[in-house]
Amino acid sequence: MVRVILNGCNGKMGKVIQNLAEKDLNVSIMAGVDKNSGQNKFPVFPGIDQCNVEADVILDFSRPDALDSLIEYGKRKNIGIIFCTTGYDDNQIKKIKEASSSIPIFRSANMSIGINVINRVLKDISGFLYKNFDIEIIEKHHNQKVDAPSGTALMLGNTIKDSISQDINFVNGREGIRKRLHNEIGFHAVRGGSIVGEHEVIFAGQGETVEIKHTAISREVFAVGALKACEFMYKQKSGFYSMDDVISY
């Protein structure tokens, strides 16, 4: 049984994870961290530094400003951290990678197994299609999401970029009057209602298009991946891990 501290336990994703974990025989949430109160079946602390419950991993679905305290706690307790939060800046991403030299660190912009399979497919086809196709990425999320483009869209874009030998530029939206350049990947963000998450990669050529799309129907898809990541990270050595490792596990 993997013992978990859930950071952000009373947020939208935290509540979904709690419900799913109750049915999971391999994972148990031992404590939560959240500034907001809720109806929890485990002790909840307002900050990770106040948590005195023993656990095997920390699962983080909160906000970027929690990063430093989580890393400090993980190092002090010598336990792994699973970062599922998006919106980190470059300096914070650097801190996450540096921490992986001391403790097991997992980070993914999207915990869905399906979107990560798509990411693998993009590694295989993007370099081949680029010569004759323009590439655009459209992502849609609910009206409370604060970062744009989404972390998942950037993950897909960077996978495509790394698969192409030429220099690629990212362009957000298409405001202005000019033709697109072939070496661009355009990102387009839609925010509205309660859309859980949609990501579409379009390869547009002469007379044909190739479209790869993933739709998250409910937040449970991210919770499933998160709990699988907890199982994978249990007793891992220090290092940097991602959903690629979980899919292969």
UniProtKB/TrEMBL annotation:
Its main location: cytoplasm. GO terms for cellular component: cytosol. The active site is at 141 (proton donor/acceptor), 145 (proton donor). CDD domains: DHDPR_N. GO terms for molecular function: 4-hydroxy-tetrahydrodipicolinate reductase; NAD binding; NADP binding; oxidoreductase activity, acting on CH or CH2 groups, NAD or NADP as acceptor. It is found in: Cytoplasm. Catalyzes the conversion of 4-hydroxy-tetrahydrodipicolinate (HTPA) to tetrahydrodipicolinate. Homotetramer. PANTHER family: 4-HYDROXY-TETRAHYDRODIPICOLINATE REDUCTASE (PTHR20836:SF7), DIHYDRODIPICOLINATE REDUCTASE (PTHR20836). Belongs to the DapB family. This is 4-hydroxy-tetrahydrodipicolinate reductase.
